[in-house]
Write the structure tokens for this entry.
Amino acid sequence: MNKPIIKHLNDFLDYLEIEKGLANKTQENYSRFLNKFFKWLKNNKLTAIKPSQLSPALISKYRIWLARNVNLQTKKTLKKSTQNYYLIALRSLLEFFIEKNIPSLSPTQIKLAKDKSDKEIKFLKLDQIEQLLNAVDTKTAIGLRDKAILETLFSTGLRVAELKNLDCEQLRIKELTKDLEIAITGKGSRIRTVYFSERAVQSLKKYLSARHDMDKALFINYKPGISKTDLSRRLTTKSIEEIVKKYVKIAGLPIMATPHTLRHSFATDLLAQGIDLRMVQEFLGHRNIATTQIYAHVTNKQLRDIHRKFHSGKRLKTN
């Protein structure tokens, strides 16, 4: 256990895989982010430093280096959000040390950079969602598909990659008359249940009724000639993003919405109706409640507006 920090990387990655159950891609990201720290240690002739020798002063120097580090391709310094990825990885390594009883600096000593440029999440209000859905011409097969995509995104809160990966056989749509729920494998290989509204089910039924192909993908493209090949017609994430942008423009909405905007809209609509943040976390498939916390400012603002409107003291008679 009394070995240099750099020598702990493989044990840490094994820990992420076996004990934390993180996906290979996530492990690769952690490895890449930590290698930035290891590179800094090498540049400063600190490769022999052990976990117990880490200090707040050393972390502070690393943070300063991160903030001033210039990307050779873009010629720009790292964004605050990017710096935080490296700091979060390092903090996770320290948490690993604590869990394995390896003397080390406390993970709480690593504070994340505050990004003043961070913007509030974008979401659509219900009347804007209606405008978006009504912008679709469902007289064509493409229109039926697009309406089903929009209804599904808002109904389920699916990530665009999760939506893209849906297959027809998952839905068993012909057996349904009302609501639908299915299990999906989401980010980080986490399995969760997603729920389709009656509106979404009806849109999906109409869309599938207009299809006469054997492609297993739920959402397919209609490019001329592609049906004559053996290639799958499954839509790409980029195509789905373009479909959403198309109807945002047609609807004349002031927000340049994306599929993720509809996911945000799904979450904020639930919270606005008083759904507990922990339940919204489950709906969205977030591993950490802190990720779901980004929506708190939305409900906080709504609470403030309600307080001002209904409890401002204006009804009190002053002396």
